[in-house]
Structures are given as C-alpha cells and as structure tokens.
Amino acid sequence: MWALGGMPSDSSPVTIALHTPPSWILAAILEAQRIAVEIPFASLNTSDYDYVISYKFYMDGSIGVEAEASGYIIAAHRAHNHDYGYGIHDHLSGSMHEHIINFKADFDVLGTRNTAQMVRNVPTTQVYPWSNGRLRSTMRLERTFITNENQGRWNWDDSTAQKQLVIVNQDAINAYGETRGYQLVPGQPAAATHARLTAINSTSLGRTASWSSHDVHITAQHDTEPRSAYPFNAHDLYNPPIDFDRFFDGEDLNQTDLVVWFNLGMYHLPHTGDLPNTLTTTAHAGVKLVPVNFFSLDQSRRTANQVRIDYGEEKVTHVETFGRDMNGSVPAGNAGCCWSNDQAALAELYDYGGPA
C-alpha cells in the first residue's frame, strides 16, 4: 500500500491510499509549501513476464500510476491459426492475449465522507438569448452522482474525453461554490485500459477474476473487503475464497468512505518486434489522479526553486526570486531539497547571455 497525504492552504488534508502487492511500500507527503516529485519503481515477476509499476508525483498535486510489461512471450506452433496471431518466426505464431492489473485506491478527500460524481460533456443544440433566434450547436456539462454500488461498475469507452469521474466531498465547497475533489483520468495510453475481452464470461477464469470485467469499480470501504482476489481462487473457479462480484450489493455510496478499484491493462498481439523479448513501448497503461477545484490555484507555482529572468537589450536586467533570499541561510526543513542559497548561482543567473 502507498499513501499520499496533502495539506492545502486551509490545512484540510486529502489522503489517497493505493494498494499493490505487499512487497512494495511507499509513503510520500505533499505539502503546499514543499512539493516533492518522486518516481519510484517496483518490479513484479510472474512466470515469463516482468511488470514495471511506477508512481509519479507531480508538482500540481497530481499522482500518476503506470504499468509496463516486458518479458518473454509464450508462443505457439504455427499451424492453421492465422486468426489468433501473427507468424513471427519459422513455424512459430505469437499468441494474442491480455494483461490486466487491478489496483485499489482508497480515497479520503477532506475526510472520509466522499461521493463519486460523473461529469460528462454532452452535445446540445439550443437557442440562446444572444443567438437572434437561431439554433447553436455546442456542448454543456451534465453532472450526476453514483448513488449506490449497483451503478459503480463501468468502462472507459471511445468518448473517454467526454467522461470524467471525480471523487468529491459534497460538504467541502471552495470559494466559488464548486465541490473539491480528485479526478481519475486514463493516462498512457487511454485505449490500453480496455483490455477485458477474454476476461468477460471467461470459461477459464470462472468467478475468480470478476474485477477484470470493467475498467473501474466503486464500492464502500470495508475492512472485510481488503483485496479483489486471492492466490487460492484458482482452486475453485465458481466458488472462490474471494468473489469480487459479491462486493456489489447495492450499498449506498452517498457521502461515505469510498474505494475505487481500477484496472491497468493492455491487449498484446505479439509480432516480430517481440523477439527476443517484449518492449514496454506499447505494453504500457496508466491513469492519473488529478485535483479538481481542490486548490485555489495551481500548486506548482509555489515550488521553492522558481525564478524569473528579465532579459532585454542583450543583458539581464533583473532576477526575480519571489521573496527568497538566495544569499541567506537555508530555511529549516529545506536542506537538501530544492533551495539554492549559493551566491555564485545567483551571479550565474545574472550572467545569462541569451539563446546561443
């Protein structure tokens, strides 16, 4: 599990905990006055594949989660199976398959009382007071709430850009009347989150991996539902120790402690470039957790290493350090971070000679 805690200017915290295999533990603290950017990596080996899981922390408060696959493909004898893979070598066919990894994100946005909001951009044609009676084709926002677990399973579709899932706290309203929250955004690449064709109604998986049936699932948090699967599920396909479908019993999701289960996956149709091993170039999927109306401004503007050089008439006229004394001492708690108190560094900024 890893957790991110943030402290915006009004001292109200946001915590998002993501659960991954227990051998990886990462904790990062994000503060408005000191924003850290870390890109830790974890590697998971399963049989012939290596999965690289990366967590990215951005200066605006966003969090990225990405999965990449590499390893040796399991091929098949090339004989009358052209519909199931490319011929990639002498008598060898690359077997098409999918990779799907499930993540659990426990959201606590300004407390544990949260609601999942769906925001869609929908087309509309209507007459406006300023359109002189003429119809205008444009788009508008459609906002709805996911009220219970029966509505909490859905897929990113071809209109991903028109659909936004935002975890909000309806009791936390910003200065402009908007609910503060965090949005789940498909990342790199968006289409890779659709890997689920063979998982749906699978005769091989039974009920052991029903978390793979949709791209996103939302449930109420329960300590009795710590994970979506179990290693021994394979011993009883239709009555496994953990049946993810049983998590969805119509429970109310309005202003409660929410868990978002999301999948990172990819279709893999091996080709000659997968020999001798698969590259992570396209075997790559990700999502981002992005603050929406959470902060009053872009938090990356508060980074400690920000400077502006005013340049004119082929010389530097001023170096704006935004209130920091680069000739003074390093503030307590910022040693080794991103502060510069080196007079030589300041002199170098003034010596800037323009583009080469």
TrEMBL record:
Gene Ontology molecular functions: copper ion binding; primary methylamine oxidase activity; quinone binding
Protein family membership: Belongs to the copper/topaquinone oxidase family.
Cofactor notes: Contains 1 topaquinone per subunit.
Gene3D superfamilies the UniProt entry points to: Copper amine oxidase, catalytic domain
Protein EC: 1.4.3.-
Gene Ontology CC terms: plasma membrane
Superkingdom to which the source organism belongs: Eukaryota
Sorted UniProt keywords: Copper, Metal-binding, Oxidoreductase, TPQ
KW Secreted (keyword) present: no
Cofactor entry: Cu cation
Protein name: Amine oxidase
Modification note: Topaquinone (TPQ) is generated by copper-dependent autoxidation of a specific tyrosyl residue.
GO BP terms, alphabetized: amine metabolic process
Record-listed 2',4',5'-topaquinone modification sites: Y49
tRNA processing as UniProt keyword: no
Residues annotated as domain Copper amine oxidase catalytic: 47-300
InterPro entries, per the entry: Cu_amine_oxidase (IPR000269), Cu_amine_oxidase_C (IPR015798), Cu_amine_oxidase_C_sf (IPR036460)
The protein's enzyme class: oxidoreductase
